[in-house]
Amino acid sequence: MHVKLSSPLLSYLQNMTQVNVLPSLPDLHASALAGQAAMPLESADRLKLLDDPAEWAAFSLPEKDRAGHWSSSVVFEGMHCAACAITLEDALRAVPGVESVQISSASHRGRVVWSPEQTRPSEWMQSVERFGYKAVPANDAHAHEHRRQEARRMVWRLSVAAMCMMQVMMYATPAYVSAPGDISAESMHLLRWASWVLSLPVMLFSCAPFFGSAWRDLRERQVSMDLPVALGMVVTFVVSSLGTFEPAGPFGAEVYFDSLTMFVFFLLMGRWLELRLRDRTAGALEAVLNRLPDSIRKRLPDGTWERISIRRLAVGDVIEVLPGEAFAGDGRVLSGQTQVDEALLTGESLPLTRKAGDRVIAGSHNLSATLEVQIEQVGAATRYAQIVALMESASVSKPSMALLVDRWAKPFLISVLLASFASAIYWWPTDPAHALMVAVAVLIVTCPCALSLATPAAMLATAGALARSGVLVRRLEALQNLAGIDTLIFDKTGTLTRDAFEVAQIHTRSGVSPQQALTWASTLARHSWHPVSRALWAEARRQAELGGDLPALDAMLARNVNEEAGQGMRGDLDMPCGVKLSLRLGSAVFCKAPTFNGHHLQVSLADDAGWLATFELAEELRPEAPGVVAELKKMGLTLKVLSGDGPAAVAQVAQSVGIPDARGGCNPQDKLQALKQWQAQGHRVAMVGDGLNDGPVLAGADVSFALGQAVPLAQSKADFVLMGGQLGVLISTVTRSRQTLRIVKQNLAWAAVYNAACVPLALMGFLPAWAAGLGMALSSLLVVLNALRLAQGLTPTPLHNLDLIHPATLTAS
Amino acid sequence: MDILYLLIPLSVALVFFILAGLWWAIHRGQFEDIEAEGERILRND
Predict the structure, then answer these.
(1) What are the protein's UniProt keywords (chain B) (predicted)?
(2) How many Å apart are CA A548 and CA A43, to the nearest integer?
């Protein structure tokens, strides 16, 4: 399998067709090999848990053919190619008690049949680990097995229909090509008889699902597509059988076995493709569900480590996470520094650094080093579980367009049944057999499937593609609304800016250079974690790095530093020339500084002689904000800013990203009022907020986005959640929603035109049953394939305006 | 054309025979991992 190194999880998801297993991280192979020496003791612990027969049922089934044997479903980690599969199979077969092994290198899955009398799961799993791979029990064994069985049955039904169809076609050909009288009555009868024999398995076996659901519909007094289809099949078969065995009967000697089998084949083909499509979506969801490890190493009170099952993990536990493992719960890093992969959860495709004190999220992968993590959330409380729940709930929600179509499907089907009945009555006096075949063609050719598939297929495909880029869709309906918006409102805090500050301007006492003031301030600031201090320290370091005297800055240490809560900091600094400076850094009052007119946050520096400098700090713009704004304008959207911050600050931010219309000082009521006003003027408004403070406004907007990693998903009421906190995906989400609506419209138009054209043709008797079957299968297939175009991943929109961001400017006053 | 009385039933039987082969192939999972056979060339044995 081809794995792109930059974002293994994303590319892995794109290969979802066959894969529904844990990802193969690029460095897993290496780390597994590197850790091999230390492994036996460590993994033995983990694997011993699986030797409990109570755990077997989670990933194994008793083997049907061989009593006393178990067949286990296993996912292999660290596999890259076919050669890996062969090595693994050989390794497993060498274990006494392992009866048979089948490993698929495409899906990284395997089945191991083993006898509990001779071996235990831990034994054969260890043999896998000795070769540098890792075997993980596949806990979804039953669901997976079920899907496999279903797919097998489907292929088998399809094969029977295909074989019989081909042969029946052969028997039908002579009747088509010969002139009347060429074939003797006996030969003709023989051919019909043979066709009848081969149509039997098609009717009795291949069509069983149609009859099954038609029967269910009848019992529950429902109407679905299967009812007219099954009716059509039965009528065709009965008419043809009478033609075969009673040529002198009312329906004549005509037979339609070829039409019947061909129709069944096309229909099954369509169903089979649909099934594969569904498995693909199920597979994508399963990949997310399968990401938690099944056992973890937990620290006991006496400091030793014990391996426990994930079900026993509790809040407050300290666990050890090895490279290549997934985090079992949300937590905080206690010690160690590593890179993590959060691609599936936040859409961030690059590895992120996590060190002591940082948060890690369940379901993300530890890539490079061993960590100790204190668990803060487990199970349903984790961000991961919320994402899974959201994905599940969104995938079953129905957009209004689909509901509309569903409402019309039933009367449509009933009128089709009536129309076919009417056509049969109309044609009956001329030719009873022809009358029935016309009725059958009408029954078969109508395709409300295409109509009812049109909307959900396209929207689900889009939701899947968006989820892979870190955009969660809460309601499919929102995709439809988003395509129609013309106004986009930003809530400034947290959407256009980051939480961090940057130094915008420095005012100094005459005789002091801004650089000097910054350096002095930074010697105090480096001792504090206050965002302001961190901004000063970062700026000082940046400047020193530019000037090439970073070591000098690092060497400057203030003494006696202490922080006065709510005021500022003080400390002494020894200058190289021998002078001692006693510095104060903090509010203007604390430093007895003059006030400057401005809308920025100000922090001052003073020494014993009084005021030295004042730093103006601006909220740092998101680097991508100006580019995104320009791009959105190009797409024809009106952009506005509505914020609760001071009007001057709001105007300044809005101006620097290029939004002319900005309103500051709004409370939530003001925002809602403004929103209602715009909506009253006929605008369709989307709101981008942080998803928390703007609850009523988000709910009032036509479409709402929540941005940022800090959003508790369960509380967020937004329609879309941008999990990575990247504004850039806003563009692709809007673009994709417009594409989606376009494709939905294409699909609906196609389905409508198809039905409008074919039903009258069938009523007039121009359409043979086989052509009706082909048309119906093709029209559903076309709709699904058209929707599939939306399933491909989003391309990150290139931003050209990145150089619009101004570096902090330094001016002396 | 009496041979038809043999050939046509024979062709019907042939279809059932082929179907039996297909049944065997499908239920042994031969269509589930199409790539495996191609990869067999990499095997040592």
Answers:
(1) Membrane, Transmembrane, Transmembrane helix
(2) 49
DSSP E strand boundaries for A318-427: 318-321, 330-335, 338-341, 352-354, 359-360, 365-366, 371-377
Chain A residues whose CB is inside 8 A of the B2 CB are none
A161, pLDDT greater than 90: yes
Please report, as a single letter, which amino acid is at residue A303. Answer: G
What single letter denotes the amino acid at residue A456? P
Instruction: Flag if A191 and B8 touch (Cβ within 8 Å).
Output: yes
Q: What are the residues whose beta carbons fall under 8 Å from the beta carbon of A388, sequence distance 6 or more?
A: A285, A288, A289
Which helix (H) or strand (E) element contains residue A812? none
Residue A319, min C-alpha distance to chain B (Å)? 38
- Taking CA–CA distances from B9, the nearest residue in chain A reads A194
A184 contact residues in B (CB cutoff 8 A):
1
Average pLDDT over chain A reads 75
Q: Is the pTM of this model over 0.90?
A: no
**Residue in B4, B23, B31 closest to A190 by CB:** B4
Listed residue (A312, A421, A432, A417) closest to A375, CA to CA = A312
pLDDT at A215: 86
Q: Which residue of B has its CA nearest to A157?
A: B23
SS3 A502: strand
The encoded tokens of residue A668 equal 């939530």
> In this predicted complex, what is the ipTM?
0.87
Range of the domain at B19: 4-42
- Other beta carbons less than 10 A from residue A245's beta carbon: 12
Chain B residues with CB inside 8 Å of A164's CB? 15
The rounded Cα A755 to chain-centroid distance in angstroms is: 34
Contact between B19 and A152 using a beta-carbon 8 Å cutoff = no
Of A457, A450, A456, residue with least CA distance to A751: A450
Contacts of A187 in chain B (CB under 8 A): 1, 4
Q: How far is CA A331 from the centre of its chain?
A: 23
Instruction: List the end-to-end C-alpha distance of chain B, in Å, as a whole number.
Output: 53
**Residues paired with A354 in a beta bridge:** A338
Number of structural domains chain B divides into: 1
Give dist(CA A648, CA A659) in Å, integer. 14
What pLDDT score does A448 carry? 62
CB A571 within 8 A of CB A556: no
Question: What is the CB neighbour count within 10 angstroms for residue A533?
Answer: 23
B34 CB-contact burial (10 Å; exposed 0-12 / middle 13-18 / buried 19+): exposed
Element of type H or E holding A104? strand A98-104
Per-residue confidence band for A571, with pLDDT thresholds at 50, 70 and 90: confident
What percentage of chain A carries pLDDT values higher than 90?
Answer: 5
Q: How far is A2 from chain B (nearest CA, A)?
A: 14
Report phi then psi at A372, rounded to 5: -110, 130
Low-confidence ranges of chain B (pLDDT < 70): 33-36, 43-45
Q: CB–CB of A335/A371 below 8 Å? A: yes
CA distances from A217 to A41, A403, A448, A568 (A): 59, 20, 16, 76
Q: How many residues does chain B have?
A: 45
Place of tokens 């490890």: A293
Chain A CB contacts of B15 below 8 Å:
163-164, 167, 198
Question: Are the C-beta atoms of A459 and A658 separated by less than 8 Å?
Answer: no
Q: Tell me how far CA of residue A56 lies from CA of A71, A72, A114, A306, A565, in angstroms.
A: 10, 8, 12, 21, 58
Q: Per-residue pLDDT for A455 more than 60?
A: yes
Closest by Cα among A69, A129, A131, A137 to A109: A137
Closest-CA distance, A106 to chain B, in angstroms, reads: 7
Judged by CB atoms closer than 8 Å, whether chains meet at A171 and B32 is answered as: no
Nearest Cβ partner of A164 from B8, B15, B26? B15
Cα separation, A589 vs A592, whole angstroms:
5
H-helix or E-strand containing A38? Answer: none
